[in-house]
Amino acid sequence: MVDSRPQSTSSDMIVVGNAKDSSSTTRPDAADALYPDIEPRSEDELRRKTKAIIRKVDWRLLPLLGTLSALSLIDRSNLGLATTVGMDHALHLSIGARYSIVSCIYFVPYVLFQLPSNIFLRKLGVVRWLSFLAISWGLVQLGMGFVTTWGYLALCRVLLGAFEAGFFPALAWMISTWYTRHELQKRIAGFYVFGIVIGGFSAIFAYVLSLLGGKLGIEGWAWIFIIEGIITVAFGIVAWFFLPSFPDENTFLTKEETGIVLRRIEKDRGDALPDEMSRDKLIHHLLDWKIWVIGLMYMCATLPAYAISFFVTIILRGMGWSITASLLLSAPPYIFAAVSIMFFAWLSDKYRQRAAVIAIQAVMTLVGLVLTGFVSIPGWRYAGIFLTNAGASGCVPGILAYSSNNIISHTKRSVSTAIIVSFGGIGGIFASLVFRQVDYPSYLPGIYATIGSQLLMLVLLALTTTHFWLKNKSVRTGQADELLEGQEGFFCTL
């Protein structure tokens, strides 16, 4: 059972009135300072109004953010698709460790630039900065279609990693500021699944684009980068006009609607309004060991997810499928993963259980890895890809929600999401290095390493959950030396 702040009403029901009437909430409403004149409503009327506002927020945030996230995922992981249709021969990527180098070099700037980007996100301007990043990596992706050597391809991958670095952690941070703790995982999963589904069909789309080979003297693999780069640039321009910002900076809700959003966040965890980042505060956040441990868990989840995205078509080729069949068969595991992710996210939010759901999906990943790595029958190996992809991908929003539920303040969210997602980049580096071209077609060293990562994640999950349980117990029994996250009435989510 997960603990949360004691409330007299559900998380969707906050008695809203003038500032002088705010005593019905469990703590002072900081949002009253900005929105003191919200029209008083009955509980039923407020419930209906709140649901309508949340639906409005969902439709404004999730489809566009999901599309941009999908484009980011596709643009970073389409190397395997391009390699399958001829890039390895054109750029001689099969020599030595060239393919692994080109795959993993992306993650060096991707890891290094995430924290600086999140720290300065508000000063840079959410809409301006994220639109600039999307347009920039789209242009780099387009440029990859014109490279003539593997060295130039590696350079483009470095630039791609630099521009994509600040994007996903900013999205995760921004979404966490709009919703209460126990409606968050469905929303993170929602925009992430959007990316998973679109990414799943990217192999089929890439196959169609490869059929343009010879047009204008350009090879089929190059058309994949060119067309997908143009699409990303177009959506980057769309983002400039429609991308939402943080709740206190948004322009698509009325003042009253914004006030209701801020008040329910304030009631849920007490950090509706942003706090200022300082050097001391940054150091304090970075010294929280839990952020780093959860980051390691995130790395363990992304390792198999990246391995699937990088190598699924290559693994299917190793099972004996043709190029066309390998590209087409890479899509169904992503559809299954999307359904699985949303089911477990709904389960986690409904029963307020994070750790148990993450553990179930880690076990799914383990079973899938064993099937793919050690069973000789192609059908069972293919089924293993389904389970591995669903379990690993489902842990990504689960771990992000698990982390977000157990911290307070905008500055700590900016630091924690950047650190945790950067560990995902390290998972991508490991996936690129342990799934080596020389181990084709079995990739057994990569399978062993990925199995080890899932076992490590389960150990770390047990460690953090035990810590949170003991902290909650100390607060209930009055033995705690300090408030959890410095917030009265706050309990950790297990």
From TrEMBL:
<dbReference type="InterPro" id="IPR020846">
    <property type="entry name" value="MFS_dom"/>
</dbReference>
<feature type="transmembrane region" description="Helical">
    <location>
        <begin position="327"/>
        <end position="348"/>
    </location>
</feature>
<feature type="transmembrane region" description="Helical">
    <location>
        <begin position="150"/>
        <end position="176"/>
    </location>
</feature>
<feature type="region of interest" description="Disordered">
    <location>
        <begin position="1"/>
        <end position="32"/>
    </location>
</feature>
<feature type="transmembrane region" description="Helical">
    <location>
        <begin position="291"/>
        <end position="315"/>
    </location>
</feature>
<dbReference type="GO" id="GO:0022857">
    <property type="term" value="F:transmembrane transporter activity"/>
</dbReference>
<feature type="domain" description="Major facilitator superfamily (MFS) profile">
    <location>
        <begin position="61"/>
        <end position="467"/>
    </location>
</feature>
<keyword id="KW-1133">Transmembrane helix</keyword>
<feature type="transmembrane region" description="Helical">
    <location>
        <begin position="94"/>
        <end position="113"/>
    </location>
</feature>
<protein>
    <recommendedName>
        <fullName>Major facilitator superfamily (MFS) profile domain-containing protein</fullName>
    </recommendedName>
</protein>
<dbReference type="GO" id="GO:0016020">
    <property type="term" value="C:membrane"/>
</dbReference>
<feature type="transmembrane region" description="Helical">
    <location>
        <begin position="221"/>
        <end position="243"/>
    </location>
</feature>
<feature type="transmembrane region" description="Helical">
    <location>
        <begin position="188"/>
        <end position="209"/>
    </location>
</feature>
<feature type="transmembrane region" description="Helical">
    <location>
        <begin position="125"/>
        <end position="144"/>
    </location>
</feature>
<feature type="transmembrane region" description="Helical">
    <location>
        <begin position="383"/>
        <end position="403"/>
    </location>
</feature>
<keyword id="KW-0813">Transport</keyword>
<feature type="transmembrane region" description="Helical">
    <location>
        <begin position="355"/>
        <end position="377"/>
    </location>
</feature>
<feature type="compositionally biased region" description="Polar residues">
    <location>
        <begin position="1"/>
        <end position="12"/>
    </location>
</feature>
<dbReference type="Pfam" id="PF07690">
    <property type="entry name" value="MFS_1"/>
</dbReference>
<feature type="transmembrane region" description="Helical">
    <location>
        <begin position="447"/>
        <end position="470"/>
    </location>
</feature>
<keyword id="KW-0472">Membrane</keyword>
<feature type="transmembrane region" description="Helical">
    <location>
        <begin position="415"/>
        <end position="435"/>
    </location>
</feature>
<dbReference type="InterPro" id="IPR036259">
    <property type="entry name" value="MFS_trans_sf"/>
</dbReference>
<keyword id="KW-0812">Transmembrane</keyword>
<feature type="transmembrane region" description="Helical">
    <location>
        <begin position="57"/>
        <end position="74"/>
    </location>
</feature>
<dbReference type="InterPro" id="IPR011701">
    <property type="entry name" value="MFS"/>
</dbReference>
